[in-house]
Design a protein that fits this description.
With 149 residues, the chain is mostly helical. It contains 5 helices and no strands. It is elongated, with a radius of gyration of 17 Å. 30% of the residues are buried.
Length: 149
Amino acid sequence: MTNIVYAVFLALVSRLSGAIWTLAIGLLGGLGAAINEKGNSFATKGSGFLVMLLGQTYASLSYAAILIHLSERMIRPNLVGSSVAWIVVFFAACFPIYVAVKDGANTSPDERNVQHLTATLTLPLTIAGFFILKFIPSVRYPLWSWTNF
């Protein structure tokens, strides 16, 4: 498969995978939301926020690690279009969390919840994490070794 064909395929598939990613965020962030709703103390709210932030960031970086691993197998480095393909991979990895941030921005301030707040922090962590996972592959193996299928 050529690099450009792979990039177009990935762009189309990443739109569908956003729905799956949303389910993963719901599962991983649900514990943080449950903790956050339990009480009104700063410690309870803070621990719920932290658990949800860690869950969202792990899910987002897992998605990025899967895309990076698959793309390293599919993209030929010396062919025309490899740079374009990697740009598409970057945007595909960041697209689901960007949608979550955009959803939070479109939500009225009264209806925003802890998931909207943590998504705002998860986006820059995902952007930085993408480059770390791509250019320092040894970082992938302790937490994301399961993505090397």
